[in-house]
Amino acid sequence: MEESKSLKNELIIIAVCVVALLIITISFSYSYFMSVDKGKNNVISVGDLNVSFCIDETCKKDYANFGQVIGTKIVDGKSVIENIYPYDSDNEALLKDPYVFNIKNTGSLKTYVTIRLKEDKDYILSSEHENYTSLTKNYSDYIKVAISNCSNKIDRENAFIQKYSNLTDNILLSDEEFKSEEDKTYCLWTYLDSNTPNEVQNTYFVANLDFKAEYKPN
Predict the structure, then answer these.
(1) What is the mean pLDDT of residues 69-92?
(2) CA-CA distance, 171 to 155, in Å (whole number)?
(3) Could you tell me whether strands 111-119 and 72-75 are parallel, antiparallel, or unpaired per DSSP bridges?
(4) Percentage helix, strand, coil, to 5, in the chain?
């Protein structure tokens, strides 16, 4: 009888130890998972994006130069700066042809995409523009950028317009939701506002688009 009671107590002790060990293991695993985000609101960066620049809003044909630089054009196979002009109004500026690009989430998880516009300070000017200076040196307050979702058509009415100098961390759009295998097409315009001084001549603005995809657990 005593042996049976002793065995029962031993089994209870073993069971308690196993449960405690499981709790410790689960707690450690959860803590490790949460530590991946390094305190950034449980955000895990992923890289399952396919980005391409398009001829038009249908995005059925890409530009040959994948990842075209904003503010440039290809002439005789070479990249040269494209003139940036002031406009009397935003509506007038948005009548010009936009840069068009498509983003596709090729991963299996729903992600949130942030789009940034960063000045390309390493861009090498061609010989005919070697005396030009960057707009951001003295005139960044006059640079305006507009972006809209053009997945169905070029949407000028709902374009989100900002001053380049007012962008926070160069962010154009943040937390754009993309389901797995979902893609969206965007239009981007860069131009100068109507208050731009005449001294802005012989300047240029060249920038790159930067994309970051994040998975955010509930």
Answers:
(1) 87
(2) 20
(3) unpaired
(4) 25, 35, 40
* 8 Å CB contact between 204 and 124: no
Buried (b) or exposed (e) across 186-217, using 16+ Cβ within 10 A?
A: bbbbbbbbeebeeebeebbbbbbbeebbbebe
In three-state secondary structure terms, 99 is strand
Tokens in use for 142? 């006059």
**Banded model confidence at residue 175, pLDDT cuts 50, 70, 90:** very high
The 10s digit of each residue's pLDDT in 21-38 is: 444 443 332 222 222 223
Cα dihedral 64, 65, 71, 75 in deg (nearest 10): -70
What is residue 75's predicted lDDT score, i.e. its pLDDT? 80
Q: CA 46 to CA 216: how far, in whole Å?
A: 10
Q: Give the whole-angstrom CA distance, residue 98 versus residue 7.
A: 79
Q: Does residue 5 have a pLDDT over 80?
A: no
Q: Name residue, tokens 């040269």.
A: 80
Task: Provide the residue ranges of all domains of the chain, joining segments of one domain with +.
Answer: 1-35, 44-215
Task: Determine the pLDDT at residue 80.
Answer: 86
99: which strand partners?
Answer: 188
Q: What is the largest CA-CA distance in the chain?
A: 103
- Tens of pLDDT, residue by residue over 105-122, are 988 889 999 999 999 888
